[in-house]
Amino acid sequence: MYSNKKWVFVLMAAVLLMSPLSSIYAQPMDSDSVITQVEEIEQIEGERAAENPQAVTEQTTDANEPAADPVQQAPEPHPNTSASSMDQAQFRNLAAGLPYEWSEQPAASRPDDGSKLTDGKYASLDMNDPAWVGHVRGKTREVMFDLGEEKSIGRISAHFFQDYPANSILVPLTVSMYVSDDKVNWGLLSHNATQLLWGEGPPRQETYVWDGNRDGIKGGNTDGKLAYARYVKVTFTMHHSQWEYVDEIEIMGTDGMVEGAVKVPAEQPHFLPPGEATAGIHNLNLLYNGQYANGLGDWNKERIIPNISYVNKDGEPTDWMFDGVLYLGLASPAGRDFGLGQTNLGDWNWYLDKTFAAAGDMQQLNEATKEVGSKLNQPDHKMKVVLMIPNPGEYLNDFGDVDGDGVTESFNDSAVGKEKAFENREKAIQWWLDQVQNIWQAQQYSNLELVGMYWLEEQISTSATGPALIKSVSDKVHGKNMKFFWIPHSLAYKSYMWKDVGFDAVAFQPNYFFGDMDADRLEDAANLAKQYGMSNEIEFDDRMLTDGVFRERFIDYLNSGASTGLMHQGFKAYYQGNDAIRNLAVSKDPSLRLMYDWLYQFTKGTYVVNNSPAPEVDVFLNGHMMEGDTVVPDTETVQFTWNVKDDDGSGLVKVTAQFDGKPYTSGTPIDLTGKPGKHRLDITVTAAKSQTTTYIITAAANADTMSTHVKRFEEQKQFMTSRAPRSLNNYIALMKRYEGTDAVQFNKYLLGFRTRLDQLAEAKMITDTAYTALKEEVYNLVGNLAEGKPATASSVEGSSSRLVPEHAVDGFSSTRWASNYVDDSWFQVDLGEVKSFDTLRIDWELARANTYKLLISNDRQNWTNVIKDNDGIITAHDGKETVRFKPVQARYVKFQGIKRNTDYGYSFFEFGLYNLSGAEEVMPIDGTTVDVNESAKTLTIDGLLMDGNLAKVYLKIVDSKGKVRHNSEVRSTETGSFEFTVKLTGNLKGTCDAYLSTDGMTEPVKLTFTYDKKD
Fold first, then answer.
1. Residues 675 and 796 in one domain
2. How many domains, the chain?
3. Same-domain status, 732 and 676
4. For the F5/8 type C domain, which residue ranges apply (predicted)?
5. Cα dihedral 344, 350, 352, 357 in deg (nearest 10)
6. What are phi and psi of 94, to 5 degrees?
7. How confident is the model over 747-768, as a mean pLDDT?
8. Which tens digits make up the pLDDT trace of 108-162?
9. Which single residue of 389, 692, 720, 727 could bond 765 by disulfide (Cβ 3.0 to 4.6 Å)?
10. Do residues 106 and 229 both lie within one domain?
11. pLDDT-derived band of residue 48, with 50, 70 and 90 as boundaries?
């Protein structure tokens, strides 16, 4: 198990052969390496494959071999390659035209009319070919055929499609084939692993085949080559997120029972029980003791005690909890990974020294076991110990000299040849086993018993020598009278052949805790474990302490284990991240301490399924109960609290919250400055089941809020001169004048504010903090033309509902769109009608583009670059990126990826389009008004100096005949305003012009007024 890697990596690593997922999800999680080789090479299926090499290559044609027309023709029936009681040429397709039953119906978008699998029409290399039947997510699919009566069956084939990553379609990892006499009890014919492997590439096909003449019958210990049965079942495992497409299934055979046909004994699926194979271990606790931050890889006695025994609330042991401990490490101090074949001899020695030091991890476990045994009056109790075997890998050139001959061992085939590289791997592992045995015997731990070794790589290597190496290691482990343990992840390649390569005890990982999966993943993992004769792992980590969703997932594991029989019947391994069990044990939160109690009950087989619904909760914003969505000024600081309704006091109820996708603690103040727009508060209440309620808090911006922000920033000395805030306040004053009454004039001064803000930033007269916050106000008030509009994309990462394109135009900073891992990906938004715009804003997630284009269209057929230089190619930048261009008009706007910047796809939180041009230019003197008071015979002219300068303003009045009748000047006030008061006389009767100017103005501002009162 990989505690320092992220599980989402596992979900897709198999797809991309070691490509990681977006680091926004980086958490200490389970599992990591999936398929570690990029080459698509032949597989060796243990000793059975060695005896019949043709079984390896028969599955399909070489995926790398070009073909003129690879799937237009249906696969030919497999030729009879050896003597049999009947010429296979007499076989016919018993499934032709036959109806069948699905365990779960295909997706509505890729339906099956009940005949597509048996109509003889093979689909083309096109996902849109209607012959394909599509499935996505959920449990292993089963399709069952009733032949009407018992018949002789010699060959079964199932035809699948792959188009990844362009269209998120993968072939199944495993296809299994069964027969039955009663449609209840099934005998196994074969498990078949993909031979194409997963990886990027053009569309392709794969046909999975069981051929009795070639493969024999896997189940029932029979030597038959033909199966005699009425019912046939084909199952295929589902990827957690990608699509799987199937079209034709053929069952080749003949009527009646021919010579050599046998009934296949049914085998009842079952968990691997605790016993001899598991060295007597029922519950194996994983303790990670590699190099971890904050000392989490260092285990002391006090930390271990709650991990091996059940302690009461005072921390005193009252019973044993786990009867086995697996020590394993991932990272070395040099940052190399023990599980990925990166570590060298120095790293291996470091781990041994650390683990077996005088006061090291193993001694601490011994002391903890001794202390617990003493307190439980069982001083002779011995804790069973399993220790990891590092993965030597297949590429390291300079591992180190393990035999003292002065030559460093190389594991790389290309450097020393396949035989020598294999021999060196064996030599290194033998050295490891000898070191462990010698140190153990020398230490003479009083209360520990070394019972097994654990293979750290979580799948059977896809290399040709992978199975053979594990078989060799198994022989060495057994030669030292120990058991061989393994915990494969849910996408482990050929995990079903665990017995063939020599493993004794295997716990299959569901991986439900970590991924974007439905709860039926647990049932599916249990069914697969039973089908393969394995058991299951229980998985959780420290996130369940702070996140109700993960706490519910932990409870789902316990409930599933109790319901499927795992709790009573199966050997169990427990992945806890680094420190979850101890943290639950010492927690003062009753709802978390209860989880520790339940875990203990589960290990003892006394846990009772709990599906208690979550109670309701009252949520308060700044002390006022929220009835729903809320609008507050973005000048406010907000804080949220909550009360659980009808809490029964059991300690089961737990409330957790997230604000804009990040954990939120009750009562924490949140300053909304610089955060105008929509925000999400997600309150999750968990009993056994959880309920999440989402509240939308809109932080509203307007002229008043902008004025408040400018004032605050001025008080905080975030302006370099007093002129800067004066200037901005003048624009705000004019915005306020027209707010709600004249949108054109409001927009004029809003855009003038933006221009002035940019000028201040360029002149370094404002801090980045103030500039960024005020710029967000502008964008919010201008409005994102794309927000809420229909959005589509070429793909969605993992077909996840959390990453759909509409999340990039929903106005929330915590939701996002993400593509598959393909350079040629696009995102498109329909503005509904032709709109003008000149600015693009993309709020990138870490998985950003390196280069991309922005295209526009009015018909979605003809597209034009908005950027005219460099062929329209834009170089992306981290964070919130703004791209300005000449104003354009269009209805459809497309982001077209050119090249990714990471191994991930493209992902952004928000995609914004803005129109920042077209408003009338703001004059240096603006906002002027003229007031003629005829009764008082006075003229008042006022206005604002928009640059914020304290300067002289000049007034000249010209009468209706063109004669200058008045000249005066005033100095602007501290607020940047000015005012003239002029006595009206007979000379100013009629219509007059007033001219305002300051030093440096090339053209004055002209005003007109009329004075008609007689003397």
1. no
2. 6
3. no
4. 774-916
5. 170
6. -70, -15
7. 96
8. 999 999 999 999 999 999 999 999 999 999 999 999 999 999 999 999 999 999 9
9. 720
10. yes
11. very low
